[in-house]
Amino acid sequence: MGHVEALTKYVTHFVDQLVFSGLEHVVISPGSRSTPLAMTFAEHSGVTHWVHLDERSAAFFALGIAKQEQKPVALVCTSGTAAANYYPAIVEAYYSRVPLVVLTADRPHELREVGAPQSINQIRMFGTYTKWEQDLALPEEENYLYARRQAARAIEESASGHHGPVHLNFPLREPLIPDFQLKDAWRGQTKPIPRAEKGVTVLPKGQLKSLIERLTQSDKGLIVVGPQTNPELAEAVTRLASRLGVPILADPLSQLRTGSHDKRNIIENYDSLLKAETIQQDVVPDYIVRFGAMPVSKAYLKWIQKYEEAIDHFVIDDQPGYREPSGVATTFIWSDAIELCNGLALNMSKGNKETPWLSKWKQMNVLAKNEMLRDSGEALNEGHAVVHLSEMLPDHSNFFIGNSMPIRDVDSFFMASPKEVQLLANRGANGIDGVVSTALGTASTGHRTILLLGDISFFHDLNGLWMAKNKQIPLTIVVINNDGGGIFSYLPQSNHPDHFEELFGTPLGLDLAPAIKMYGGKHTRVSTWEAYQKALEESFSNNELNVVEVITNREEHVDFHRQRWSKVEQAVLEWRKRQ
Which intervals hold domain Thiamine pyrophosphate enzyme N-terminal TPP-binding (predicted)? Predict the structure, then answer.
């Protein structure tokens, strides 16, 4: 068997096994050394291939597809620093538990560490941020079955347990062009490797009984649902809350603020309530059961740390893990969340339990909502930009949210809605890089997507817009332009004016319109609420790239939020006096 035949069968069997194991999308960045993989993916009819020129944006684009589909997506790039550009997205995928299969082409072993061009050390180059990694064998005679085994394992490793990225490094010798006309170039008589059978983790009956006893000892409990993407959790967790008679503090990324499920026990405004010390001490629960990651709210984090000794904490995770950054004493329960909710609810009285504790939280939530949404005739501001957007979001759409201030504004101003809207964000590492590309990845699957982000984050990933232009992917982007990093105005750094603007405020001073035009997008800069609503309506009615730029003021933004939080506290205190 000659080199070309060995190379061809190696890569065709590898790619065919990936597809058989469930791979549906691959994002390829151009390069020479990755030619065998790129051409083979393009030849295979069972996988959709996307080409992106910028590896950093390509990796975040793949992340977006995988986040939306909850299935592994492959990445292919050439050797050298091309692979290094994947690093930020791989870190995000690791912490946000998104399955990626990273395939990096490499020089053969004899060309490593000898000064060969475009050759760097790619072994374990992503460190501890991959679940599994392999430096593969060279394509040689009859080792295509080995290639199949590696492909099958790559899919299983990325999509089992806590999902995450895996890395396979491909050393490849020239010539690099496969011959797809060879007999049995593809599967031939070879049987694909079957997919592994997976079950769910269930809490033993004895432990389930003990947990029921603890939760039913007191009416003063809380369920907290942080960022998570399982659409089926909403029904199960709201049923459990109803039978326990406890509130649910629902993070905006919990998937509980939107949808048709029962929202009677949903508390959206807990962040604004817990900012007030006069409220904090009056709502300390006996226990907290948390599903999903830690909520966005910093007020919640500080609150549970402050009253740690008074609260029993339980964190539910499908697989072993330790997502509890508050440092409070915690009982980790490793069980399938839906199975656990259903098992608990089945052992409790049916119906909707109402308690004074639950009524208190509900009333405070209404008071907080009224104050946060109150229209006092303000000029454009970032909080009410979220309010208008949330009211206008199309049903069955994706709402992708940038980090820094946008996710916090959504936490404060996005209220419960019957619309079927999925809220997404890159909250693994919480970076502002790659947000445009990740949103485009979710949009590429055919879901109408609206992205909200700040001007600095938009600037960070302008290259990502190329994919929207090249593949005609419709996307509405709302850019909150306060000419800099708005979140720093809330931090102690803002008290040091001598260096604040240069080091933290970092005003861009850029006209975004020419860049948007370069990528074929429609740009609308708005300065009134009427213009904002009109621009949103127009963007939802077409299948183009639409960028709505909302001009706001950083200093006014801080004052606006603090005034609203003060009004919430005042409203709750006045209500208490009337009781």
Answer: 11-124
